[in-house]
Structures are given as structure tokens and as C-alpha cells.
Design goal:
Elements lengths: L1 H25 L3 H7 L1 H21 L1 H5 L7 H21 L5 H4 L2 H5 L19 H17 L2 H29 L1 H9 L9
Helix pairs in contact: 1-3, 1-8, 1-9, 5-8, 8-9, 9-10
Length: 194
């Protein structure tokens, strides 16, 4: 169990920050990346992200931080968060393909490649993928219960919110009034009670 907890903590502190930075680099500079094109952009950012993961893995001992131990209430919290994240993922996968997740329609700039996701889970919250990531990251932080994993897990929430703000600007540019109307109808993260 201790080895599994440590491995999860290492994955949280080495993989998640570069993944978040990826979108913090794409969204504000999407016009630049579109001029380059999806394939070269994905290769370039993929190479940088891989290098960042390798670099962070080399200093993982410092990043993981102190082991806060194994405690049943924290493991129960991890289980609840993981189940919630997995439930969102299961429903979200029906609409959000790997192509969309990678940002290909966004990076291509071709209107025929894009359609506004506003059905299914997207009819209830605008950003289920980001809610899924936040819950999942907190689940893995709770399971591992290492200080560094908690720091990254908690820092994920404001980072995701910033990414969402940047992404929504790009969505307004891409879809215009259609996205504005959708944003007025559907909340960002928490569904409205009917």
C-alpha cells in the first residue's frame, strides 16, 4: 500500500503541473498555434511536456513532500472523490473525444472541425472535464496523502479556473453569440437545481 501511495504521489506532482501548463500555453496564444497547425503544435508541446515530466521526475523526492500516513477517513474521502470523478468521466466520454481533448478542433481554427458541445452532460455544466480533473486530482492526493500531492491537488483548482476563463474567451471567439447564450443558460461547474 505504501508503494502504491508513493507512486500515485509521484504521478500527481510530475504529470499534472505540465498538463495544466499545456493549456495555459495554448489558450492565450491560440492564434499563434493555429498558424503553426495542429500536428506541429501537438508535437512541440508534447515534447516540452514530456521533458517537463522527466525533469520533475528527477526531483520527485523534493516534490512529493512528507508522507502524512494512511488514515481511513482520508481513504474514504479519496474513494468518494474518485467515484464522483469516474462517474463524470463515464458520461463525459460520450461527447468529448480524444481528438477534442487534444485540442485539434481548437488548434485547426477550421469551423467545420468545431461544434459547440451543449447536449448530454454539457447541458447541465459547461466544463465537466475540468470538474472531473479537479475531483480526480483531489482523490489521488487523498489516496497518496503526501504533502506535495495535496499542494498540487489544491493548486489545481485555481489553475483550472484560470484555464476555463482563457478557454471561454477562445470559445466566444470561435462560437460567438451561440456560446454566450449557452453560457447564460448553463453554469460552469455545478448544475442548477431544477
Amino acid at each position: 500500500m505504501d508503494t502504491a501511495r508513493y507512486v500515485v504521489a509521484v504521478l500527481v506532482v510530475t504529470w499534472l503541473p505540465p498538463a495544466l501548463v499545456w493549456w495555459l500555453v495554448v489558450h492565450p496564444f491560440v492564434d499563434f498555434w493555429r498558424r503553426i497547425g495542429p500536428r506541429p503544435t501537438l508535437w512541440f508541446l508534447g515534447t516540452l511536456t514530456t521533458a517537463a515530466i522527466v525533469g520533475l521526475t528527477l526531483v520527485r523526492g523534493r516534490l512529493v513532500g512528507p508522507d502524512l500516513g494512511t488514515h481511513p477517513p482520508v481513504l474514504a474521502l479519496a474513494l468518494v472523490l474518485f467515484i464522483a470523478s469516474a462517474a463524470i468521466a463515464r458520461v463525459r466520454r460520450r461527447q468529448l473525444t480524444m481528438r477534442i481533448l487534444a485540442g485539434v478542433p481548437e488548434l485547426s481554427g477550421d469551423p467545420s472541425e468545431s461544434q459547440l458541445l451543449d447536449q448530454g452532460l454539457y447541458a447541465h455544466i459547461r466544463h465537466p472535464r475540468y470538474v472531473e480533473i479537479a475531483l480526480g486530482t483531489l482523490a489521488w492526493a487523498a489516496f497518496s496523502n503526501f504533502g506535495g500531492a495535496w499542494v498540487v491537488g489544491l493548486m489545481t483548482i485555481p489553475a483550472i479556473h484560470l484555464i476555463v476563463i482563457l478557454e471561454e474567451r477562445e470559445l466566444v471567439d470561435r462560437f460567438g453569440d451561440e456560446y454566450r447564450a449557452y453560457a447564460r443558460r448553463v453554469p460552469r461547474y455545478v448544475p442548477r437545481r431544477r
